């Protein structure tokens, strides 16, 4: 799996359009939904600079993404719209997760987490 990260600074009057195009259930997600290797997209907005966003595309491989872009005419139309909404757009890079972890606050026992999970109707895995 690879994650392709972009930083986009969006024009103030285009934030709503950008979020609709790249957020959950978006045109971007729909564009690639049926493509081999596409696993989803995450849109993050900076809490201190609300015009600054990160998009994180999740693909099985960078080659899958390149093939999907090469074969998608709708991709060019979406890119053209983005050009009108963005002040700047920078590809941060292509990343591969080395490990995933959940960090728990110190001071709570495993038993406390199990009780909380049971209260919420979730199973815990040990």
Descriptive notes:
It is a single chain. Strands 2-3-1-4 form a 4-stranded antiparallel β-sheet. It has 5 helices and 4 strands. The protein starts with a strand and ends in a 6-residue tail after the last helix. It has helices at 15-22, 27-32, 62-71, 73-85, 110-120, and strands at 2-10, 38-45, 52-59, 86-95. The protein has one domain (2-99): Alpha-Beta Plaits. With 126 residues, the protein is α+β, with helices and mostly antiparallel strands.
Secondary-structure topology with pairs:
Layout: E1 2-10, H1 15-22, H2 27-32, E2 38-45, E3 52-59, H3 62-71, H4 73-85, E4 86-95, H5 110-120
Could you spell the SSE succession in H and E letters? EHHEEHHEH
The pLDDT mean sits at 83
Protein structure class: alpha+beta
CATH class: Alpha Beta
Helix content: 25-40%
C-alpha Rg (nearest Å): 18 Å
Largest sheet: 4 strands, antiparallel
In CATH, the architecture is 2-Layer Sandwich
Shape: globular
Determine the CATH topology: Alpha-Beta Plaits
Percent strand:
25-35%
For the record, the count of structural domains works out to: 1
- The total beta strand count reads 4
Task: Summarize this structure briefly.
The chain is built from five helices and four strands, in the order βααββααβα. With about 130 residues, the protein is α+β, with helices and mostly antiparallel strands. The chain has a single domain (about 1-100), classed as 2-Layer Sandwich (Alpha-Beta Plaits).
């Amino acid at each position: 799996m690879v994650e392709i990260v972009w930083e986009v600074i969006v024009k103030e009057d285009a934030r709503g359009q950008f979020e609709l195009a790249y957020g959950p259930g978006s045109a971007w997600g729909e564009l690639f939904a049926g493509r081999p290797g596409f696993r989803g997209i995450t849109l993050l907005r900076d809490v201190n600079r609300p015009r600054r966003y990160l998009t994180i595309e999740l693909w099985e491989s960078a080659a899958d993404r390149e093939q999907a872009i090469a074969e998608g005419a709708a991709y060019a139309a979406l890119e053209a719209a983005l050009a009108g909404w963005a002040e700047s757009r920078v590809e941060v890079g292509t990343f591969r997760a080395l490990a995933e972890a959940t960090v728990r606050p110190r001071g709570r026992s495993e038993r406390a987490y199990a009780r909380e999970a049971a209260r919420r109707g979730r199973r815990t895995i040990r």
